UniProtKB/TrEMBL annotation:
Family annotation (Pfam families): MAPEG (PF01124)
Protein's name in the database: Membrane protein
Predominant subcellular localization, coarse grouping: membrane
SUPFAM superfamilies: MAPEG domain-like
Keywords carried by this UniProt record: Membrane, Transmembrane, Transmembrane helix
Length: 139
């Protein structure tokens, strides 16, 4: 089961859903406390009154819909063309673990230099998977 590129993909999808739960578990009470009525909102900027700790969790949820799109494409491609070997699977799992750590850092201490380092390491994983797929192309 863990010998498939698709399992790390599923893990990141599940983590994104966990972040969705965390986002709404903090956002809804904060909106109620700030007396924000979503039905009357005209602009997203009205959410700026929410505490930073609430907004950074929502920001992370949004981040999980940005760069991970490349991850999903690479993992699916690797799986379909048969380049889902142990090395690519290892890099896929490393990417997922780094994104979970990135989420936890952003959702708690939100120390930007640490977040950037984690993000950079995760991005290197994507580069490695992409390059290994390019190398595997038939000549």
């Amino acid at each position: 089961m863990y010998q498939s590129m698709m399992v790390p993909l599923l893990a990141l999808v599940c983590w994104t859903l966990v972040m969705w739960l965390w986002m709404y578990a903090t956002r809804i009470p904060a909106m109620q406390k700030a007396k924000i009525n979503p039905a009357r909102m005209k602009e997203k900027s009205e959410m700026d009154v929410l505490p930073r700790s609430v907004r950074q969790i929502a920001d992370n949820h949004n981040h999980l819909h940005e760069q991970p799109v490349i991850f999903y494409a690479l993992v699916t491609y690797s799986h379909l063309v048969g380049v889902g070997d142990a090395i690519n699977i290892g890099f896929a799992w490393t990417y997922v673990i780094l994104r979970v750590i990135h989420s936890l850092v952003q959702g708690t201490i939100n120390f930007i230099p640490l977040r950037f380092g984690i993000y950079a390491l995760a991005t290197i994983c994507l580069f490695v998977i992409a390059i290994r797929n390019l190398i595997a192309l038939p000549v």
